[in-house]
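Objective 1b: paired records.
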Amino acid sequence: MMDYELFKTVVTQRIGDYLPEEFRNTHPKIHRVNKVNGAKDAFCMEPDDPDDQKAIPTLYLDDIYVDFAVDEDLNRVLSEVAYVFMTCSGRYIPDELKGDIRDLTDGIIFQLVNAELNEELLKELPHRRWLDLAVIYRVVFRRNEDGIDSFLLSYEHLEDIGISEEDLYELAMENTMRMFPVDRIDGGDSMFILTNDVAWGGASTILYPGEMNRLAEKIGGDYFLLPSSVHEFFVIPAKRTNPEKLVSMLRVGNGIAVRMEEVLSNSIYRFDEKKGKLELVAS
């Protein structure tokens, strides 16, 4: 199997072959980032022009290498990395959509993402903070049996549309609830998986008006929210466990089972039914 140092070299040399023209004036960059459990190699496509501020996400090469080790399919890994750069970037818009962004407002939705992991990206995107998370906006332009195609909404897009972030949030709320209705999957023993009808970006359903109160009614009181990924929350009755145990579960899940770009949070949240309030209780 290719060792990690060679893998880094090959990825940086070949990733450009998998990216569209919008990334032509960028170059691969790797820098070490100090994390709680050790340093990691952060990988991005940095613009050649220092004044070019269009958003490009950062991925961790360490995590990509672990994914590569599953089947050693370099073409698959490079294609998936390029896809993340394209769909999670304010730089890329498909050719067929390079018209008036105002024609696409019916497809504007919101999603919850990890605020810390997306700190640089958030500088270029209209967003709002929600506890330790962030609400961002996407434009869904195609949805069929093959999946969902979308791109991130940037400040530039928002200016073209001509509305405030507050109005954008209200528009996205209406569209997201219509396009992705909530789905509560019964896990037994009063436990639920909270997502949407396609289990894509389903963690944002927790923002739907009244949803947290409806969960409390179903469960019969307070509950913990364990963020499995950007696609779903586990909802667990508070009387069944404690947040310290859930943190251990979450650490293992995020470290092994969840792709880096799909990690939502390393925190546990509790909904207090009497207060009608959600709080961060452990991390």
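Objective 1b, second protein:
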Amino acid sequence: MVSYFLQHIKYEKRLSHHTFTAYETDLTQFSAFLLFQYEFKEPDKADFQMIRSWIVALVDEKIENRSINRKIATLRSFYNFLLRHKTITANPMLKIRALKTDKTLPNYVEEKPMENLLDDMQFSDDFSGLRDKLVIELLYGTGMRLAELIGLKITDLNLYNNTLVVLGKRNKQRIIPVNKSLVEAIKKYLTLRTDIADDTTHSYLILTDSGTQAYPMFIQRLVKKYLSLVTSLEQRSPHVLRHTFATHLLNRGADLNAIKDLLGHTSLAATQVYTHNSIEKLKKVFKQAHPKA
């Protein structure tokens, strides 16, 4: 039943490749545990005690609670699927609770360092330089995810209306406005891109130096390289630029619902984490300015 479930989330629910891989990995690890610990080969027939013992084993291995909770969520989806298809009559996950996790605020780059990077940094005028700057500008200027950037195609751009279409999680499309400077950066990049483009990947916007479609590690290394020049944050990833985009918008008075739509969040709860950063900024201003603070 594991294979049927994986086919279901891949072809019917149409989850992203990253999410599908995570589900597949979690279920493979769970199956291996059952086989090793209980000589049990059927995960669909595992009971509460078996599942609980796996979670305890993960805790003993010092796996982070957030990672364990993701595995719990995978099993919850799996057994709900089995219950809907009447493969099981009782859900063994009903008594399983998520582990407590510390609330961590999103890391983001302050406005001044971002201005220094985009306005003062000397990017080269060749293809690589224009591409590198465009990657930073797209991630910071739109808040798109890494996978969305890699999957962005030339046909997704509307340079007349200053918008682009992003294909997000679960194949949901959203339209994001782009500023004039980003449009100009795209136009400059496109003039040199035609000399680099590989025939098999010509539809994708962001290419490597060899003309192939950009891949996650390539973008991650690129972003880390440039953020290292302006910030001492330990985490310097594309997702930090997504957090930076949202935090800067909120700090400048943007509506939270609008930010939710720009980020492609399905619920406001996912976006509200950015309000904590804004509140911390308000506290700082209050302490500096109020006579009774």
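The first strand starts at residue 157 and ends at 158. The chain has two domains: 2-84, 111-287.
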